[in-house]
């Protein structure tokens, strides 16, 4: 292992030298100058520099990794990788320090502290993903990716994958084999592990599970996230979705609160909702704690809202039928169980659960007429013949 | 650096909708024609709105995996990509001839976006229809003794849709390879329901000009043609109907050679794709090669 030293000495001898994470090496007429937060060495020959660097190998491999392996070609990839291992996100970056990452910069650990952590493994959650980065004796990073719920699972018990694009298939179906229409839905199946990804492939894999999550997170850190609020997003819809515009009737935003509570809650989607009703009006429901932002109503929200726009155009009616108190509660239980996707968890013979299948069948047998009308009451008055 | 971005419809309900998009993206990726290959969807993720920010390259070729020019290629995709100064007149198209325009996008102002016409209207699509007939019959020389039907929606929602069907049917007819070639439609005359009325040939290959398999290609068309009473029970290929053997191919968009059309679209717009077209044409072939 010496190629990182060759690259470092070459770079240090060029122009202003190198500077990263408190580590500076430059050359002047007096020779090389090496500076770390702990010490400064002056007037080193090239041989002297190489010798001195042996005592600062963490700094040297850290510089090599960020300068030569990761590089600057994709600032968002670089920023994400630095965030993953707890490094200050903009150090060595090219964005002039205008980013909003003071919370991170202030308590970023020194390189030796960070390397101590990295040798044990540093974990970060990203939605339902868990990234663990470790560093070996040569300063090379290895990234493991698995389901966050399987943090304690033995790696050998998980199916191993090496190719980033394998994530596409893993993201397509939930635990029960159902199609996942929303990549960031809070229903990612587990049972898999990417045991050893390099930096580039880690980001590719993460982006395959959660497309555009890294660029949106990066833009947000820089204060440049282009949030499109509800009013903007539905305003630009055309064709079959243009009808959603008619749902806003100038009488408040309660309907959008309901949409957000239904679709965007942390229990449903791992993105943190940053869009509001409009520029001046925040929604009353919480946007969640997701690691990365949601910048506008997604296509699932728009498609569902088209249906709700039509449904909510109906006038209420008074229906008259009788329920026992327990039957009313049972109707509530069933709605709760469906809304929380809990029906599969209710045991077949657990007749104490209102949403139990036998309980529901009993209710249907008792209360529905042959046309499926609750309480024998037709839905439309005109059907009452 | 140059990137290819394939944009497609996708679905909230059916994973088969995006499957061909991923397959063709993988084919292009494997031949190394581009530094990056990305996909974006109207109904899946990344959304078309956000796909450009996932790209690192500064020259970006956007190819819509759509059958015809119309609402999606002219309104939805340019709007969602935030193409600056987009004007459909710049395509100067008769409904079949959109090739590409070069614009910038406000989402990624530092990049150059080459926005291409849909795959379905490219001349190379004709070859994919023929290749689909080869694949479904297992015969690389299929033609003699066979009729070929190209099936589309019809004009109900978009007149350009029927234009694309006619265009490819005419081109296949001019090849003089199949005994008969006929354009058929789902919602207008000549209707796919009556397929056997339109052919004298005993063997008829039926290829829907659709991007992905879904409700229309897997349920409607097989039932309408009488291949099965219930699509859930499946059907044989070929199936005998009214004295004809119907070789039903399913959506042409699932044919591997579609990757060739994607590449051609990007190349027409100026992408440097080297010799990858030839590689793709060979790699995606599923029928045995001719001896000579």
Automatic annotation (TrEMBL), chain A:
Region named Disordered: 91-115
Domain DR2241 stabilising: 111-221
Highest taxon, organism lineage: Archaea
Biased composition (Acidic residues): 92-106
Residues passing through the membrane, by range: none
Domain (DR2241 4Fe-4S iron-sulfur cluster binding) ranges: 222-307
Cross-referenced Pfam families: DR2241 (PF18069), DUF7348 (PF24039), Fer4_23 (PF18009)
DUF7348 domain mapped to chain residues: 3-71
UniProt protein name: Uncharacterized protein
Native source organism of the sequence: Haloferax prahovense (strain DSM 18310 / JCM 13924 / TL6)
UniProtKB/TrEMBL annotation, chain B:
NCBIfam families noted in UniProt: PRK02395.1-1
GO MF, one annotated term: metal ion binding
InterPro entries membership: CbiX-like (IPR002762), Sirohydro_Cobaltochel/CbiX (IPR050963)
Keyword Cell membrane: no
Keywords from the named record: Cobalamin biosynthesis, Cobalt, Lyase, Metal-binding
Organism of this sequence: Haloferax prahovense (strain DSM 18310 / JCM 13924 / TL6)
Protein name, entry field: Sirohydrochlorin cobaltochelatase
GO biological process: cobalamin biosynthetic process
């Amino acid at each position: 292992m010496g190629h990182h030293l060759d690259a470092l000495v070459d770079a240090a001898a060029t122009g202003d030298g190198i500077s990263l994470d408190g580590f500076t090496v430059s050359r002047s007429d007096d020779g090389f100058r090496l500076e770390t937060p702990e010490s400064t060495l002056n007037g080193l020959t090239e041989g002297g520099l190489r010798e001195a660097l042996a005592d600062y190998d963490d700094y040297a491999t850290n510089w090599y990794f960020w300068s030569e392996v990761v590089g600057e070609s994709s600032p968002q990839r670089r920023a994400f990788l630095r965030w993953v291992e707890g490094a200050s996100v903009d150090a060595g970056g090219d964005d002039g320090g205008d980013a909003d990452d003071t919370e991170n910069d202030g308590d970023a650990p020194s390189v030796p502290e960070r390397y101590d952590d990295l040798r044990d493994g540093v974990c970060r959650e990203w939605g339902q993903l868990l990234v663990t980065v470790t560093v070996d004796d040569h300063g090379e990073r290895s990234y493991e990716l698995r389901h966050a719920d399987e943090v304690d699972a033995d790696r050998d018990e998980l199916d191993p994958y090496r190719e980033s694009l394998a994530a596409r298939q893993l993201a397509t179906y939930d635990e029960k084999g159902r199609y996942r229409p929303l990549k960031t839905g809070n229903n990612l199946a587990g049972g898999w592990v990417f045991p050893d990804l390099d930096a580039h492939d880690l980001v590719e894999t993460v982006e395959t599970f959660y497309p555009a999550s890294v660029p949106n997170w990066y833009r947000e850190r820089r204060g440049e996230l282009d949030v499109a609020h509800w009013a903007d997003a539905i305003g630009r819809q055309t064709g079959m979705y243009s009808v959603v515009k008619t749902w806003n009737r100038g009488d408040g935003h309660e309907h959008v609160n309901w949409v957000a509570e239904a679709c965007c809650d942390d229990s449903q989607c791992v993105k943190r909702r940053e869009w509001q009703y409009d520029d001046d009006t925040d929604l009353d429901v919480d946007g969640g704690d997701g690691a990365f932002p949601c910048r506008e109503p997604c296509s699932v929200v728009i498609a569902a809202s088209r249906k709700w726009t039509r449904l909510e155009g109906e006038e209420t009616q008074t229906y008259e039928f009788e329920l026992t108190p327990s039957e009313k509660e049972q109707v509530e239980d069933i709605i709760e169980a469906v809304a929380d996707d809990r029906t599969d968890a209710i045991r077949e013979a657990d007749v104490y659960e209102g949403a139990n299948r036998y309980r529901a069948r009993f209710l249907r047998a008792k209360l529905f007429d042959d046309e499926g009308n609750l309480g024998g009451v037709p839905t439309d008055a005109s059907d009452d013949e | 650096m140059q990137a290819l971005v394939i944009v497609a419809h996708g679905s909230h309900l059916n994973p088969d909708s995006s499957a061909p998009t991923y397959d063709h993206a993988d084919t292009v990726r494997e031949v190394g024609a581009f530094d990056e290959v990305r996909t974006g969807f109207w109904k899946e993720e990344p959304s078309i709105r956000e796909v450009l920010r996932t790209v690192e390259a500064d020259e970006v070729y956007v190819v819509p995996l759509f059958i015809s020019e119309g609402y999606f290629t002219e309104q939805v995709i340019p709007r969602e990509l935030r193409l600056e100064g987009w004007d459909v007149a710049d395509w100067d198209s008769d409904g079949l001839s959109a090739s590409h325009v070069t614009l910038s996008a406000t989402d990624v102002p530092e990049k150059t976006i080459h926005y291409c016409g849909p795959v379905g209207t490219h001349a190379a699509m004709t070859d994919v229809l023929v290749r689909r007939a080869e694949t479904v019959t297992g015969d690389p020389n299929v033609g003699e003794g066979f009729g070929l039907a190209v099936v589309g929606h019809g004009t109900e929602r978009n007149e350009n849709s029927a234009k694309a069907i006619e265009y490819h049917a005419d081109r296949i007819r001019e090849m003089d390879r199949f005994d008969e070639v006929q354009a058929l439609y789902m919602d207008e005359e000549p209707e796919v329901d009556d397929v056997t009325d339109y052919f004298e040939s005993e063997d008829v290959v039926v290829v829907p000009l659709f991007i992905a398999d879904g409700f229309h290609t897997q349920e409607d068309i097989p039932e309408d043609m009488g291949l099965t009473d219930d699509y859930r029970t499946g059907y044989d290929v070929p199936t005998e109907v009214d004295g004809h053997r119907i070789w039903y191919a399913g959506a042409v968009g699932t044919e591997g050679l579609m990757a060739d059309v994607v590449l051609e679209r990007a190349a027409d717009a100026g992408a440097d794709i080297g010799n990858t077209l030839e590689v793709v044409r060979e790699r995606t072939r599923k029928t045995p090669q001719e001896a000579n």
